[in-house]
Design brief:
The structure holds two protein chains of two kinds. Chain A is mainly β. In chain A, 0% of the residues lie in helices and 56% in strands. Chain A has no helices and twelve strands. In chain B, strand 4 and strand 5 form a beta hairpin. Chain B is globular. The chains are: A mainly beta, B mainly beta. At the A-B interface, strand 6 and strand 11 of A face strand 5 of B.
Chain lengths: 115, 116
């Protein structure tokens, strides 16, 4: 069954530094992958998604992610982090089962940004 | 913009009480979902609905039920609340049908439920 692993529970970076959040998936065929962000006290907001085609996907707020089939990864990146990026980030994959598609989420990575 | 609202941001209930969490969306989406979010576990699907009066169990349905009498409203019911149901509950919607793959979900702000 499809699953998602986010190896890092907490990450701290300095403002202006680059960021990479890791996501590994388990799925035999081409997965449908998402990154969501949850700011404090808010619901989840979609950052970007990958279904097929170009393996480098651009999202909102200056984020991008690269799909690497050989590494079963879909890591999220940002070249220069802003203090407002402090949030929790979730990677998700679509699970196809019984005719209904569901989103399977990773455990999340909480990002702290130092001034 | 899609708007998904949840009836309460914070809720405190006693063990054994019947609890209703309401979710309302204004974009005529067919599909609605209830998740619970716990630290270190991410989001786990409780129930979902692809149409009015239709419901399907998610990964952790035990102790919960749902109701969808109108397209825009999806209710999560805890028949007899227990302390292990203390959690953040998130509602989500999407406009695609069950077999389509666009699958971008729109989330409400969440209800933090504490059961004492």
């Amino acid at each position: 069954a499809q699953s998602v692993t986010q190896p890092d529970i907490h990450i701290t970076v300095s403002e202006g530094a680059s960021l990479e959040l890791r996501c590994n998936y388990s799925y035999g065929a081409t997965p449908y992958l998402f990154w969501y962000v949850q700011s404090p006290g808010q619901g989840l907001q979609l950052l970007l998604k990958y279904f097929s085609g170009d393996t480098l996907v651009q999202g909102i707020k200056g984020f991008e992610a690269e799909f690497k089939r050989s590494q079963s990864s879909f890591n999220l990146r940002k070249p220069s982090v802003h203090w407002s990026d402090a949030a929790e980030y979730f990677c998700a994959v679509v699970r196809f089962s019984g005719g209904y598609n569901k989103l399977i989420f990773g455990a999340g990575t909480r990002l702290a940004v130092h001034p | 913009d899609v708007k998904v609202t949840q009836s309460s941001r914070y809720l405190v209930k006693r063990t054994g009480e019947k609890v209703f969490l309401e979710c309302v969306q204004d974009m005529d989406h067919e599909n609605m979902f209830w998740y619970r979010q716990d630290p270190g576990l991410g989001l786990r699907l409780i129930y979902f609905s692809y149409d009015v009066k239709m419901k399907e169990k998610g990964d952790i349905p035990e102790g919960y039920s749902v109701s969808r009498e109108k397209k825009e409203r999806f209710s999560l019911i805890l028949e007899s609340a227990s302390t292990n149901q203390t959690s953040m509950y998130l509602c989500a919607t999407t406009s695609t049908g069950a077999l389509l793959i666009s699958y971008e979900q729109y989330f409400g702000p969440g209800t933090r439920l504490t059961v004492t």
